[in-house]
Amino acid sequence: MATFALVDVNSFYCSCERVFDVRLQDVPVVVLSNNDGCVIARTSEAKALGIKMGEPWFKVRDMAQRGGVKAYSSNYALYADMSQRCMTVLSQFASSVEVYSIDESFLALDGHDPARLASLGGEIRARVLQWTGLPVGVGIASTKTLAKFANHLAKKHPAFTPAGVCNLIDVPPARLDKLLAATSTEDIWGVGRRLSARLAAQGIEDALALRDAPADQIRTRYSVVLERTILEMRGVSCLALEEVMPDRKEIVVSRSFGRPVVELHELREAVASYATRASEKLRRQAGAAGGVSVFLHTNLFNDDPRYSASTAVQLVEPSADMRELVGAACAALQRLFRPGYRYAKAGVMLLDLAPAAIRQETLWSPSLSRDPAALMRAVDGINKRMGRGTLRTAAAGQRRAWSMRRQRLSPCYTTRWQDVPMARA
DNA sequence: TCTGGGGTCCTAGGACCC
DNA sequence: TCTGGGGTCCTAGGACCC
């Protein structure tokens, strides 16, 4: 029987902020989305105040501040670096690790003494905390879906020992049934709000009823995906550990603007910036794009006149060249733009991605002596050393008055020398 | 009056995840 | 005034092919 652990960091973004500021230890902390728009991470103290996930910050700000909440703009440079440190520690505990998201990993624990799994979970927690300062939860079970559930239980029930660890393999079947019966289907990995509502309408009101529903009926009425979830809940492992992250099939860079944008030239700066960033991500996976799509829209929440549009441009041959991708994106924007609207957001998607190495050249492809890839390697190299955006296309602009608000940003403690308190002194 | 069967590819939309 | 960003997979239906 396979054994999986799911390890995740509690309130990850908030915990990262706490590591570097002891004053945040016992106070409620939230981290906001880009543009300081919504609450996307909350500590338990902030949850206790009734602050919901995804809630617009301007709606809860007054209440939150009265309650002593400290709010931060999201600092992805800090979180990405802390994530790497955490994953490095986790890799010491398992031969195979799947980094599932910025704050979660699945570990293959096969080969460990079954009697020692729970205490192993405790050791994982202790070492990650000691080496990175981040608190994690550990769920252990025979399938990935059950490991997710175990992790959920470890957070909810302080009774499991050691604290923060739940090993479902040790839980007697009758007790497991009770725990499932007390769990909403929505709290099962793979079941979202919509499916949960449809299931409830069919009389499947809790996770126990879902597990025991007839699998073939579920497949016919819903999908093979949900059938797999049910099998996994029964201990039949259908989802394997995926160690190598497959290359992205599409790359999206999009942002809401810090304020409404009316002028084409400002939109062009934004779209060129997004295309530049997207091309960096593309080259990082050694890919080339066959097409570029651009979208833009006005504010969907207020009474501004609505306009929303997208269009795609096919490239003559796949490319990872920043200049070509920015050019294509700007051409697409030109087609979409309608004057007189107050635009709120734009985005660039790179489509039809393929490995750059196997691309099909045309009769007019540049010769090797004018290798555009060499130029891009130089650009990427300089930006890596000197900071993102040091070299960019002129189209990406200088003033960038449209860029997002981040008024509550913490320092990049681990990735910028200027931001290290000691270095400033 | 009669109007096959089977396959592939593409796209849009819906659902999920963090 | 203020409402995030970036992904994946599956399915149904239409176009098209022989």
Description:
It is a single chain. The mean pLDDT is 92. The protein has a five-stranded mixed sheet with strand order 5-6-1-7-8. Strands 9, 10, 11, 12 and 13 form a five-stranded antiparallel sheet that branches. Strands 3-2-4 form a three-stranded mixed sheet, with helices on both faces. Helices cover 38% and strands 20% of the residues. The longest helix has 21 residues, at 264-284. By secondary structure, it is an alpha+beta fold. It has 15 helices and 13 strands.
Short description:
The chain is of the alpha+beta class. It has helices at 12-19, 44-48, 57-66, 76-90, 117-132, 144-156, 173-181, 193-201, 207-211, 215-221, 224-233, 264-284, 322-336, 372-386, 421-424; strands at residues 4-9, 29-32, 39-42, 70-73, 97-101, 104-108, 136-141, 165-167, 251-261, 287-298, 308-319, 343-351, 354-355. It is built from 15 helices and 13 strands.
Query: Element order, helices and strands?
Result: EHEEHHEHEEHEHEHHHHHEHEEHEEHH
Residue runs with pLDDT of under 50 for 5 or more positions: none
**Relative helix content:** 25-40%
> How widely separated are the two ends?
56 Å
Percent strand equals 15-25%
Class computed from helices, strands and strand pairing: alpha+beta
Shape: globular
Q: Count every helix, treating DSSP H or I runs of 4 or more residues as helices.
A: 15
Strand order of the largest sheet: 5-6-1-7-8
Radius of gyration: 24 Å
Q: Tally of extended strands? A: 13
Global mean pLDDT: 92
